[in-house]
Write a structure and sequence with these properties.
Helix content is 28%, strand content 31%. It is of the alpha+beta class. α12 (400-412) packs antiparallel against α13. Residues 478-482 and 530-537 have low confidence and may be disordered. InterPro entries: ATP-grasp, BC-like_N, Biotin_BS, Biotin_carboxylase_complex, Biotin_carboxylation_dom, Biotin_COase_C, Biotin_lipoyl, CPAse_ATP-bd.
């Protein structure tokens, strides 16, 4: 058995791996960048090594530094987690060449499944059904546009080296193809160093079904059933569950058998996921489910599989990497109950899901109700350098409705401040009629997202209770001398005026401000004061950078006439592209943005003057 393990990752997955390793008596080594010097995974590991500056390309993506850290600390093995170098075959080979154990599949398996076009060809040869599309070498935009027309719109452009929702664009009409292709290729080149794409037919009622597979060095491959990850936003998973609603035993058997064939076709070792797309227009049917891609690593959503099977997949990874066979046979694996996972992000859905950064002055999650996987703690910093996911909230129930209700309750009982989160959005998604009925397809949020992203407001009762803790008892009593024991007064709720009903005795020692926590959201209520005029907001035409980042495209020039909602420029931050748009019709009076420039938060990038 491996005795010492370096985790080549950060955040919640690093903490997750450390937890299992500790239970197995394995010494752990963490690596960290400047931004993560005080991170939770650094605190929890037995030893930690600094590997460079905050940007991932200078730290977590530098394989030489990670291997050097392993050798310096006497670590025998390296676990890559997910993301970063987890699906980098060259790094996996370098680990083996250095005499270390790679906790993952063979480099050849990663290579075989790493490019989507080659993987689909290989799967077709192995008898695994694949979606119709173009997977050739010709990358000429005009030729690709012609292929898209032959496939028939809508189509999906996908980076062959992509993953995690990056490098993917849905195109509904031929007129939009060229712009979507350029954007997809640009993101693919920046994220993966490869702008090669393939084109697939876009399924109009698609569901994302995936199968957890596991192989060992003794020739055994098993599946641990399916997960449904259909609730997505911009191709990124939001809520995952296991098993898949509406899956009958016959379809499950065919789907899982296809997944095992796929794994055996690449001589797979370790944890992997075979992702399928299903046309659910007539329910889940085996003849309408096609291979999409394989993720040659542990998935973000692996906890839901663990919850319904009772298996610790990280423990299995470490045992198989140590040369042991898979602990259970296929006949010993069974589905028990239902599990759901919500990805809790530091982002503001009411502002276009812009990432939110800062200190977690309040960070409380209901661990007594279910499973919480996180890599942060109260007082930790959410930085702009990495993915904004701060926790995974996992609920288990005897059936789907019990799991859904518990997950909603866990999110409602969360309290995080001043960093904004998507908790209220997740609750709204869980309550959507299509999700409740189990008929979600991947386009649900695109169609009905506005109903889920409305800025939440606390109830009148919650505001009153908070306000009364700020009102001196003597002041409130004075009002009761000449008026009823009810009145309204202005306060500031996160800096915006709100009129609050006051009643009751007031407080002996009034608080200077109060936090209002309700339904997964937190606001600060403070005394009313005359607000000074703010400058630099979009209302006066100033376009400010919402966070530190890099300008990757500028679509206008000074003097251009623009219309409300027109894209002005694109900012890359926290591994995502963010389009900044014109707040109203007008003229670009000032432009301070150039492609390739690094900008700080609230930097003035452009100024729009209203049209006369």
């Amino acid at each position: 058995m491996i005795q010492s393990l370096l985790i080549a990752n950060r955040g919640e997955i690093a903490c997750r791996i450390i937890r299992t390793a500790r239970e197995m008596g394995i010494r752990t080594v963490a690596v960290y960048s400047d931004a993560d010097a005080k991170a939770l995974h650094v605190r929890e590991a037995d030893e930690a090594v600094h590997i460079g500056p905050s940007p991932a390309r200078e730290s977590y993506l530098v394989g030489e530094k990670i291997i050097a850290a392993a050798k310096a600390t006497g670590a025998e093995a390296i676990h890559p987690g997910y993301g970063f170098l987890s699906e980098n075959a060259e790094f996996a080979q370098s680990v083996a060449d250095a005499g270390l154990v790679w906790v993952g599949p063979k480099p050849s398996s990663i290579t075989a499944m790493g490019l989507k076009d080659a993987a689909k060809k290989l799967m077709a040869e192995a008898g695994v059904p694949v979606t119709p599309g173009y997977m050739g070498e010709n990358q000429d935009p005009a030729f690709l546009a012609e292929q898209a027309g032959q496939i028939g719109y809508p189509v999906l452009i996908k980076a062959v080296a992509g993953g995690g929702g990056k490098g993917m664009r849905k195109v509904d009409a031929a007129a939009d193809f060229v712009d979507a292709l350029a954007s997809c290729q640009r993101e693919a080149a920046a994220s993966f160093g490869n702008d090669h794409v393939l084109i697939e037919k876009y399924i109009l009622t698609p569901r994302h079904i995936e199968v957890q597979v596991f192989g060992d060095t003794h020739g055994n491959v098993v599946h641990l059933f399916e997960r449904d990850c259909s609730l997505q936003r911009r191709h990124q998973k939001v809520i995952e569950e296991a098993p898949a609603p509406g899956m009958d035993e016959a379809t499950r058997a065919e789907l899982c058998a296809a997944a095992v064939r796929a794994a055996k076709a690449v001589d797979y070792v370790g944890a992997g996921t075979i992702e399928f797309i299903a046309d659910a227009s007539e329910g889940l049917r085996a003849d309408r489910i096609w291979f999409m891609e394989m993720n040659t690593r542990l998935q973000v959503e692996h906890p839901v599989t663990e919850e319904i099977t009772g298996v610790d997949l990280v423990e299995w990874q470490l045992r198989v990497a140590s040369g042991e066979p898979i602990p259970l046979t296929q006949d010993e694996l069974a589905i028990n109950g239902w599990a759901m996972e919500a990805r809790l992000y530091a982002e503001d859905p009411a502002k276009g899901f812009l990432p939110s950064i800062g200190t977690l002055e309040l960070f409380q999650l209901p661990e007594h109700l279910g499973r919480i996987d996180t890599g942060v703690y109260e007082g930790a910093e959410v930085s702009p350098f990495y993915d904004p996911m701060i926790a995974k909230v996992i609920a288990y129930g005897e059936d789907r409705e019990e799991a859904r209700e518990l997950l909603s309750e866990m999110l409602e009982d969360s309290a995080i401040w001043p960093v904004k989160t998507n908790s209220a959005f997740l609750i709204a998604a869980l309550d959507h009629p299509d999700f409740v009925s189990g008929t979600v397809d991947t386009g649900l949020i695109g169609r009905d997202g506005d109903s889920m992203t409305a800025e939440p407001m606390p109830t009148e009762t919650a505001l009153t209770n908070a306000a009364m803790a700020m009102v001196p008892r003597s002041l409130q009593s004075g009002f009761r001398l000449n008026a009823p024991d009810v009145r309204t007064a202005p306060f500031l709720l996160d800096g915006k005026r709100v009129d609050v009903t006051l009643h009751g005795p007031g407080a002996e020692e009034p608080a200077p401000a109060m936090l209002v926590a309700e339904s997964g959201a937190v606001w600060q209520l403070s005394p009313w004061r005359a607000a000074g005029s703010a400058s630099g907001g979009a209302s006066d035409g100033a376009i400010l950078s919402p966070m530190p980042g890099k300008i990757i495209a500028v679509d206008v020039a000074a003097g251009d006439t623009v219309t409300k909602g027109q894209k002005l420029l694109t900012l890359e931050a926290m591994k995502m592209e963010h389009s900044l748009t014109a707040p109203f019709d007008g003229v670009v009076a000032e432009l301070n943005a150039t492609a390739g420039a690094q900008v700080q938060v609230e930097a003035l990038l452009a100024k729009i003057e209203a049209a006369e």
